[in-house]
Amino acid sequence: GQQLNQSPQSMFIQEGEDVSMNCTSSSIFNTWLWYKQEPGEGPVLLIALYKAGELTSNGRLTAQFGITRKDSFLNISASIPSDVGIYFCAGRNFGNEKLTFGTGTRLTIIP
Amino acid sequence: NAGVTQTPKFQVLKTGQSMTLQCAQDMNHNSMYWYRQDPGMGLRLIYYSASEGTTDKGEVPNGYNVSRLNKREFSLRLESAAPSQTSVYFCASGTGLFYEQYFGPGTRLTVT
Known about the structure:
The complex is a heterodimer. Helices cover 0% and strands 52% of the residues of chain A. By secondary structure, chain A is mainly beta. In chain A, strands 2, 4, 5, 9, 10 and 11 form a 6-stranded mixed sheet that branches. In chain A, a hairpin with a 2-residue loop joins strand 6 and strand 7 (61-65). The mean pLDDT of chain A is 93. The termini of chain B are far apart. Chain B is mainly β. In chain B, the strands form 2 sheets. In chain B, strands 2, 4, 5, 6, 9, 10 and 11 form a 7-stranded mixed sheet that branches. In chain B, strands 1-3-8-7 form a 4-stranded antiparallel sheet, with no helix packed on it. The model of chain B has no long low-confidence stretch (mean pLDDT 94). Chains A and B meet through strand 4, strand 5 and strand 9 of A and strand 5, strand 9 and strand 10 of B.
């Protein structure tokens, strides 16, 4: 099955740094979602994007729906220790109840 | 609201044993989903149910069966467990025009 390509696969940053990650697809999507998963937990929805070009924020997190509809970006500003986890993107085509998930970006904060 | 709940949280099975994973949601969502998550593989869809009374195969349905018992509950059954089914299983539910999905805490299954 199709999966979305996320990059980078992993990131090691220092507390206070900004983080950028992206997700690309060979197909067009009508909805992009960003999830965060902490160890031993299920993924938690962070941000949902519904229109090409849309920019949406949730606290220190900002996500963008790419103009081509084939990509999406997530930025985290001024990272803190609780940002540690795996970030997944997911895309959905209109009329399809199923999501296609990315392979995840693992974020580690170096003390 | 509890959201999406799953039982059990952990399970160890021997090869050939059967078991049912339970999932319930209290958000009045129409759609429910079962995923498995393996290291480096992301989330892969096993089965889903777009509404009460309907179920459809996902990406990796072999070795599994599902039942949409009512609008709230969606169970996943392993009839004869195999070591390849060792994984973390997540249930999710979703609704609305854009079908955002909300996940449960997962069941960690080991088959020996």
